[in-house]
Write a structure and sequence with these properties.
With about 110 residues, the protein is an alpha+beta fold. The chain has helices at about 5-15, 50-60, 80-90, 95-110; strands at about 15-25, 30-45, 65, 70-75. It is globular. The mean pLDDT is about 95.
């Protein structure tokens, strides 16, 4: 991804993206761990060129979910993808940047 695309995606995520904590069962099934999940939803009425459908290929991360006939969302859940993408997006975010940075640091701290 070139820096122009990173800035564009940062703007989209700043306006319409979501970052949240989730508590997921560990592989052994004996406990839970905290995960960080990023996603953005787009209606086909807004995303006329189908940009959201290209995000997994462009970023090399995440997957698409068809929420309804007209709404598709891009989800990034994998820790290595979060670590690779979030710092690049956060530095260009105006509205949510500080909060997302805090969430990323909180998630990192609980992982160690």
């Amino acid at each position: 991804m070139n820096e122009s695309l990173v800035k564009y995606l940062a703007g989209l995520l700043d306006a319409d993206g979501a970052l949240s904590f989730a508590f997921v069962k560990d592989r052994a099934g004996t406990g839970f761990h905290m995960a960080l999940q990023m996603h953005i939803k787009m209606s086909s009425a807004v995303d006329l060129d189908g940009f959201v459908h290209t995000l997994p290929e462009i970023t090399g991360a995440g997957y698409l979910h068809k929420d309804s006939e007209k709404v598709t969302s891009w989800h990034v859940n994998k820790a290595s993808d979060i670590e690779r993408l979030l710092p690049r997006f956060i530095k260009h975010m105006v509205i949510k940047g500080r909060h997302w940075h805090w969430m990323l640091e909180t998630w990192r701290a609980q992982r160690n």
